[in-house]
Each structure stands twice: as C-alpha cells, then as structure tokens.
Amino acid sequence: MATEKAQRLLLATTNRKKLIELRELLQDLDIEVVCLADLPEYQEISETGKTFRENASLKALGYARQSGFLTLAEDSGLCCDALEGAPGVYSARFAGPGKSDAENNEKLLKLLAKVPDNCRGAHFKSAVALAEPEFLLTVVEGEVHGVISHEARGENGFGYDPLFFYPAFGKTFGEVPGDMKHQISHRAVALARIKNYLGNYLPYRFNGGR
C-alpha cells in the first residue's frame, strides 16, 4: 500500500508565477501536488548547471533527497539568435541578481535595439526533470519559436512573455490568456511528455514496484 508521502509530487520551484503554471498544466494528474512552501524547511538548491537540463536535474534530485517526495523541477529560459543564445540559463537574472522581470526585459530590448526584424528570432526552452530521492528518473525538453518584439505588450504570463511574439497567434505571450499559451508553450510541451511518463510510472510506483 502506498504511503502518504509516496502519493505526492513535489513541484520544486520558488517562483510563484511558474508554480501557478505548473499546477495548471498538471491539474489532471491523479496525484496530490505539493510545493516547497508545504515543507517544514528546506535548503535552496543552487542552479550551477551550464544547461537547462543540468539545472533541472540538480533541483529535482536535491529537493527529492531533502523531502523524500517524488519531485519535479523545471528550468527554462529565452534564447535569442542575435545574442548567440543569451540570456539562456541566465534568463531570470539577466539584468543582475534580484532584478525584476521588467528590468530583464528592458535590458534585452536595449541589446536588440538596432537588430532588424529578420534577425530577432528567439525560442523559449524548458527542461523538466523528475527524480526519486535515490535517483534521477528522466529529463524531457520542450521548445517554442517566435520573435522578440520591439516593445513589451500585454500583462499576462511572466518573465519575457510580453516580448515574445508568437506568429501563429499574431500576439505576444503576454497578450494571450493562459489556456491559449498552454496549448503550445515550451513548458506545456515538456510537461505533456512528463505526464506521459508519469502515466506509466505512477501505477508501477504505487503498486510497490520500486
């Protein structure tokens, strides 16, 4: 019989807006979803990896070992063609540690100010890692491609969403509702792959197959 702890999935993020998105994308899972705030105490895991996969894996394993829970961690960011992939893994702290989304966006716009429209291609990339306390289970990725606009547009989403223009929508991610973004976003693609994995793994795990 599964223990109470075994029936929970820990979402290992301290980003409140990302947590909301993850909960929305995982709401149809037949498992209780908890977050770091539900733990009595935890030590924050540093994102020292050079890739999204490395950071997601570090967080998933680190928090799984601390909590004893099956743990999901995600690392993602924006990669701009004209900046050779920057801001990349430094997306959240592009303008410096502790800077806001608006300040990160402002720095990006300044760097791309003289870049013509045909060179403003970019993509969001997400890596999602799933871990048990003893080992890393899997890491999957998702991408979505678009263009960096010349100004911030829309107040939905977070991060670089107001700058990321998605041609098929004719709008930035900041201008569309969450359910529309969830149809095609980098995070949605990666989470769909994780849910497929969990669909096979959870019955095995809860039946004592570990």
Outline type: globular
Uncertain parts: none
Order of helices and strands: EHEHEHEEEEHH
Main sheet?
A: 7 strands, mixed
- Supply the CATH class: Alpha Beta
* Separation of the first and last Cα atoms: 12 Å
Task: Count the DSSP helices.
Answer: 5
CATH architectural group? Alpha-Beta Complex
Summarize the structure.
With 210 residues, the chain is an alpha/beta fold.
Can you give a write-up of this model?
The chain is α/β, with parallel strands linked by helices and 210 residues long. The chain has one domain (5-206): Maf protein (Alpha-Beta Complex). The protein has five helices and seven strands. The chain has helices spanning 16-25, 52-67, 101-111, 178-181, 186-206, and strands spanning 8-11, 32-35, 70-80, 121-131, 136-148, 164-166, 171-172. It has a seven-stranded mixed β-sheet. Helix 1 links the parallel strand 1 (8-11) and strand 2 (32-35). The longest helix is centred in the last third of the chain and has 21 residues, at 186-206. The chain is globular, with a radius of gyration of 18 Å.
What's the helix and strand layout?
Elements: E1 8-11, H1 16-25, E2 32-35, H2 52-67, E3 70-80, H3 101-111, E4 121-131, E5 136-148, E6 164-166, E7 171-172, H4 178-181, H5 186-206
Parallel strand pairs: 1-2, 1-3
Antiparallel strand pairs: 3-4, 4-5, 5-6, 6-7
Highlighted features:
Maf protein; seven-stranded mixed beta sheet; 210 residues
